[in-house]
Amino acid sequence: MASYWWTRRRASVALSQSEYRTLLALMQRRGRTVSREQLEHDVYGASVALESNTVAVYVHQLRRKLGDDLIETVHGYGYRIGQEGA
């Protein structure tokens, strides 16, 4: 069951808590690249050991729900939402 709702392009989309926290961490740094490690820390806390692709999975789910154009991959570093994003 969705815990959060996000509206983009006049459509409301249900997000899980982890999806919402991932999106929020990126939106708070809009226009800047955020490393995978920083996202892990922001979303899950410093002491949680995650699988190597956990952040990528949530980014994929966000792209599927909100559109491929919202989150940009910065290869070898992390992810970014542009200044005009969301």
UniProtKB/TrEMBL annotation:
PROSITE patterns given in the database record: OMPR_PHOB
The entry lists its GO molecular-function terms as: phosphorelay response regulator activity; transcription cis-regulatory region binding
The DNA-binding region ranges are 1-83
What GO terms in the biological process aspect are recorded for it? Answer: regulation of DNA-templated transcription
- GO CC: one term? cytosol
Subcellular localization, per the record? Cytoplasm
Q: Residue ranges of the OmpR/PhoB-type domain?
A: 1-83
Q: Keywords assigned by UniProt?
A: Cytoplasm, DNA-binding, Phosphoprotein, Transcription, Transcription regulation, Two-component regulatory system
Q: What is its main location?
A: cytoplasm
Q: Which PANTHER family match?
A: REGULATOR OF RPOS, TRANSCRIPTIONAL REGULATORY PROTEIN QSEB
What is the protein's name according to its record? Answer: Swarming motility regulation protein rssB
Query: Which organism is the protein's source?
Result: Bordetella pertussis
